[in-house]
Design goal:
The chain has 18 helices and 36 strands. The protein is α+β, with helices and mostly antiparallel strands. The chain folds into 4 domains: about 180 residues, FAS1 domain, CATH 2.30.180.10; about 130 residues, no CATH class; about 80 residues, no CATH class; about 230 residues, Jelly Rolls (Sandwich), CATH 2.60.120.
Length: about 675
């Protein structure tokens, strides 16, 4: 039997003892106390008793729930729980194994254990405390909870016989939807789910419509820079549990510390239409006309990056190198989490497709150039847009005039996989460049980050903005950009649901204990006078914090006097009062607070109504008046894009249970905070 290169590659994957399926397994933490059968038809019962699913059922009896247990997946699906199972039909399983071994009616008993794992683990989601998923729960993009193989499952939609059908992982159609069982839902599919085992550069290389960008990744060396998958030292050296907020219980730390990457990719047709390059001419896997294509790309890149004149494409001072770098973000961003929609005014998270005002995220791209990318999405943007610029109504935050549409991001590449082992790529509809108007116009504004968006580890490990209201322990050394003292501990709070605090995007990172943390700040887009602000809510348990700021990480200078975070907002040293019906009175209140170094919370986000549209703004909330997330002006001074600035926050009181809260921060240029027109409230 002569196998194709693809089949050989696939079989090698299955026969590697700890490759892929075992590599990703996080099922060793299955709570065996829940493994008892109860009344009602379980997922296991249905698969076993229903004609057409016997092969998948048989495989669940063979595959273990983890490497350290003898318990089988069948027992898991027969027990209490909440599962979503994308069960392939017998026909689908047979077609899959026949295609791999290139032999008709290949015996199910003859496949390797690793292949059985691949089929079973990639088809099952353990939804933990959340209910199993129905098709009405699906939106375009990756499902939040990953499979037993710790892989994202991708959702898209298609039409068949004039009816909408759900497509899973680009190729598997749900043909038997929403089979309700006592412990979850079965979504019967017509093909075995087959997530790619390629790393991101290889996945892009395999896309038939991305030959040019794939070659650019190789020529510039970035293909070699995006091969990391996970931190192997963390796998063997991290504590399984960490303290909760009050140190009254131990809660799980993240199972893994995955690396991740995201690429925004022009298709070959975009290069041809926008830059006039020739169509890629591939013969026997050779890019015959590459030099001709590269010549045009070099010419176009030098127009945008005229100072980058190095000849070597791997040189950071090469124009093509800088062009490619601006397409890459060192975080694994799933589609639905690329721009967070949670508590913006008018939005209700129970109806996620009903967008309201624009939301923005700012990401630092790869290459060490300290360049930011702005991604916006709202009801007026027509999708997710990179570096969109417009004028907003100061009362409603509606778009009034758009002078830069922004590059549109597409959610997938049609029937070609975009979900790699260590990241995602997304096609874009126009050439993406960091021209002068990006820092000078698009980013010449107040730039606000939710702190969780600055932790690539939260993003790459699927922890940011999860649908969970619980506490999540994080080891002190988990984040590359933040150092935390041994006397402190970290807890991430997503606050999804009715118990939300009045946070920006609802979530927060708590540093508890005798806290002392140092954080690498994101860059500014252009040289000038900038104001650095941080959320500084008032709470009796937050103690008193000294801020330090500077460019030498281990020699930072104290900025001003310690800030007493225990004071109520009404204290004269803060000067908060509610907005008045008279705009002039409100302006005077804002001015008084500004004189004390404080600014009210932004109007953009509001107070959760458990999924109903948000109506009460953070700025003037009555529900959380005693704990508003006001902004504290920490520092004002000159900054350059190439400089790296660090923030240190240290508790100056002896309190082993004090708390410092990381919610959001802002860089604000002088022309915004002290411009001709007063700064807006949003």
């Amino acid at each position: 039997m002569k196998l194709s290169n693809f089949k050989i590659k696939l079989l090698r994957t299955f026969t590697a003892a700890f490759a892929v399926a075992s590599f990703w397994s996080c099922s060793d933490k299955v709570d065996s106390s829940n493994l008892f059968v109860f009344e009602g038809e379980t997922v296991a019962n249905y698969l076993e008793d229903t004609e057409g699913y016997s092969m998948f059922s048989q495989l669940t009896k063979r595959v273990k729930t983890g490497r350290k247990t003898d318990s089988r997946v069948y027992s898991l699906l027969a027990a209490r729980g909440n599962y979503t199972v994308f069960a392939p039909s017998d026909k689908a399983v047979q077609q899959f194994i026949d295609s791999v071994y290139e032999k008709n009616n290949y015996s199910l008993d003859s496949i390797t254990y690793e292949m059985a794992e691949y089929i079973v683990r990639n088809a099952i989601i353990d939804n933990q405390d959340q209910k199993g998923l129905k098709t009405t729960d699906f939106v375009i993009g990756a499902l939040e909870t990953r499979s037993l193989d710790d892989r994202y499952i991708m959702i898209s939609f298609d039409t068949l016989n004039a009816k909408t059908v759900v497509v899973v992982n680009e190729k598997s159609r749900i043909e038997n939807p929403d089979v309700e069982c006592s412990n979850g839902y079965i979504q019967g599919v017509d093909r075995v789910l087959q997530p790619s085992n390629d790393k991101l550069p290889d996945l892009i290389k395999g896309a038939p419509n991305m030959k040019i960008f794939s070659r650019l990744l190789e020529e510039t060396g970035f293909a070699d820079s995006m091969n990391l998958v996970r931190d192997e030292d963390y796998e063997v050296n991290h504590a399984e549990y960490g303290p909760n907020l009050d140190k009254t219980a131990q809660i799980p730390n993240p199972d893994h510390r995955y690396y991740g990457f995201t690429a925004f990719v022009e298709t070959d047709s975009v290069f041809m239409e926008q830059w006039g390059v020739s169509a890629p001419d591939y013969r026997n896997d050779v890019f015959v006309n590459w030099q001709s294509v590269l010549s045009v790309i070099k010419e176009q890149c030098l127009k945008v990056y005229p100072g980058a004149t190095a000849e070597d494409l791997k040189d950071p001072n090469n124009a093509v190198h800088q062009f490619v770098a601006y397409h890459l973000v060192p975080a694994r961003m799933s589609w639905e989490k690329m721009v967070i929609h949670m508590l913006e005014m008018g939005y209700g998270f129970s109806n996620p497709n009903n967008l309201t005002i624009d939301c923005h995220e700012y990401y630092e791209t790869m290459g060490g150039y300290h360049r930011l990318m702005k991604i916006s999405e709202g009801r007026q943007t027509d999708g997710k847009r990179i570096n969109r610029h417009c004028t907003y109504d100061r009362d409603t935050y509606d778009e009034l005039f758009v002078d830069r549409e922004g590059v549109r991001i597409l959610p997938d590449n049609g029937k070609v996989a975009n979900n790699a082992l260590n990241g995602f790529y997304y096609p874009i509809d126009n050439i993406l460049v960091y021209d002068d108007d990006v820092p000078g116009v698009v980013l010449n504004e107040r730039i606000r980050w939710d702190f969780s968006s600055l932790f690539s580890e939260l993003i790459s490990n699927g922890l940011r903005r999860i649908k969970d209201a619980g506490q999540h322990a994080v080891p002190n050394n988990y984040f590359e950009r933040m150092d935390v003292s041994d006397e402190s501990w970290l807890v991430y709070l997503p606050y999804h649901g009715p118990n939300s605090q009045c946070n920006y995007q609802a979530d927060e990172m708590n540093i508890r204990g005798q806290y002392d943390l140092t954080f690498r700040l994101p860059p500014v887009p252009f040289e000038g006078t900038w104001q650095f602000r941080i959320c500084a809510p008032c709470n009796a348990g937050f103690g008193m914090a000294q801020f330090y700021l500077g460019k030498e990480k281990y020699n930072l200078q104290a900025i001003g006097l310690p800030v007493d975070l225990r004071l109520p907002l009404s204290n004269p040293s803060i000067g908060w009062e509610p907005d008045d019906d008279d705009p002039e009175v409100t302006r005077q209140i804002d001015k008084n607070m500004l004189n004390h170094g404080y600014i009210k919370p932004p109007r953009h986000d509001g107070i959760s109504r458990n999924g109903a549209p948000v109506t009460e703004s953070m700025r003037n909330s009555t529900t959380y008046r005693a704990n508003l997330r006001v902004r504290k002006i920490v520092w004002t001074g000159n900054m350059k894009p190439e400089e790296t600035m660090y923030l240190r926050v240290k508790s100056v009181l002896t309190n082993p249970f004090a708390c410092f809260l990381l919610d959001y921060m802002e860089w604000v240029p002088k022309n915004v905070y002290n411009g001709v027109e007063e700064e807006d409230q949003w």
